[in-house]
Amino acid sequence: MADTLREQAPPLLAPFYYRDNFQRLCDTVESRYQDLLSAAERDVLRRWRGLPLPAQCLYVRLVSRVGPWFRDDKLAYPELGDIGAALAALDAAGLLLRTADPGWPELERLFTLAEWRRAFAAELNTAPGQGKAELLAAAAALDWSPARYADCLLASTGGALVAPAELEVVELLQLLFFGNRRQGLTDFVLSDLGIANYYPYALDREQRLFSCREAVAEYQGWSQLADDYWILREAEDSEGLRALADLLLVSPLQYDTSAQRYWKLCNRLARELERQGELPLAGELYARSELHPARERLARVLEAAGDWAAARDQCQLILAGPWCEEEYEAAARILPRVCRRLGESVPARRRDTFTTLQLQLPRSDEAVELAVAHYLAPHWQAVHYVENSLMNSLFGLAFWEQIFAPVPGAFHHAFQSAPADMYQQGFRTRREEMLARRLAQLRNGPLLPELLAACRRYRGYDCRWVDWRLLDETLLWQLLCCIPAPQLLAVWERMLFDPGENRRGFPDLIALGEREGDYCLIEVKGPGDQLQDSQRRWLRFFADQGIPAQVARVVWCDD
DNA sequence: ACCAAACACGCAGCA
DNA sequence: TAGTAATATG
DNA sequence: TGCTGCGTGTTTCATATTACT
Ligand SMILES: [Mn+2]
Ligand SMILES: [Mn+2]
């Protein structure tokens, strides 16, 4: 009864919203990158704009769906009226492809098991219990010409095969709009629905991500090779992987825009080659990469190859100018090993000693972190299982304005939850002054009102750092009551030093008391779990700063 | 920050 | 027929 | 014991429909 009386909520999205989204994307790219588009590509846009509304809509539907081929008889869009007419309009504008032979894999996908059965009832003995894979194998064994299969199926089901033309142009437009390959038209929808809620930062319309068409082509080239890499790895084609490495080694890197992609691919491929024992080739790839962990892996490759002297030199190169703390520590671990091999003496590395709490707890179903939290609960006001999310969220609140500051090149489009350079060294250097001012401001005033204000002002907006499910004003009040401001500031400064590296490794639990200084960060270690390097680094830092932290080592008492 | 990832846990093999 | 994976959708 | 590599689980918008086993 209540259900029938409840008013229908108005639809969140306008009719044909997807056409409008596509048009927004096209307009933006065309005005921003007109000189990077060829005459043929601009003509595709012109032709799409000239279509009647239902045909425009259908084109957007088709390029958004898994294809490339579709059966026209299965296109069901009642709101578009006569689908045949829309297809004819697309055809006339050169935006539709038709085929009598889409290739075997597409046929497998386009027709259901029942349709295959019916179409091949005469040619094959099709038992009802037979699965699709078996039936397809039996059909393939007929060894017909490729087109004959399609003829047979279509003769049985009716309909024809169609595909949207100029898919590559659509992909190009999306790449130019977003600057990456993972975002697309769905991001418009999620934003309109409020599922994603992006902060209204100032967009940078001056700085273009791609300076020229060659830069775009280079980016697309590395993307293609990355795709090839996954296919080759999936197929366990070691010959192909070696060929890919050779190709990568003779391809020069010319544009900064795609450097990260190139280096990432070098690192990934090299790591796979390492596993296959191709050490020299892996080493060459690592030498091409300027992205961690390339230099560390090269040191390990040299060590594994028995080239102790080169491995030692590589470690010393890293130690003299590390890219990050992780790299420095790796080099500091490898160096003594190779020096021993060379008969050289090295000073022993000091071992970490962290305050440790030994616990015997009854085995239970819940996670060991929660078991410890429950064990500790009676002794504290509150114990929260937060890992990285708490300190990261506080960091986001404290530096929200700096994170979303309109720095050149930071925000290319309206669907970002962090600036483009968030995890690069340049993040800090490009915002040196405003970060210094913000730190001074936070040092001079009480923190709680600042954080409460930020929490209220920005609540709900997407930020890579902030988990709004965790934060509420009570928690902030409790936290700021217990954690002395200088200690929070020290943590934030370390996070600012390397936001990419220092966003992880925070302890599992935070236990809160009632007075300033009355709190503890606790890393839980179950049987068999070791402290990770990132966790060690934070624990060392906490010890240096006098921030209360402990490692809780749990053993199960079975009886 | 590319659900082709990032993160943390948990184990095995090796000195 | 229930459980699953993939797909399309807003 | 420390170091290393490798495999695992968790987490991604939420919901309806379709196809398959
Ligand atoms: Mn943890
Ligand atoms: Mn832990």
UniProtKB/TrEMBL annotation:
UniProt entry tagged with the keyword Hydrolase: yes
Molecular function GO labels: 5'-3' exonuclease activity; 5'-flap endonuclease activity; flap-structured DNA binding; metal ion binding; phosphodiesterase I activity
Cofactor(s) named in the record: Mg(2+); Mn(2+)
Record EC number: 3.1.4.1
Alphabetized Gene3D superfamilies for the sequence: 3.40.1350.10
Family per similarity comment: Belongs to the FAN1 family.
PANTHER family per UniProt: FANCONI-ASSOCIATED NUCLEASE 1
Protein name (record): phosphodiesterase I
Organism: Kineobactrum salinum
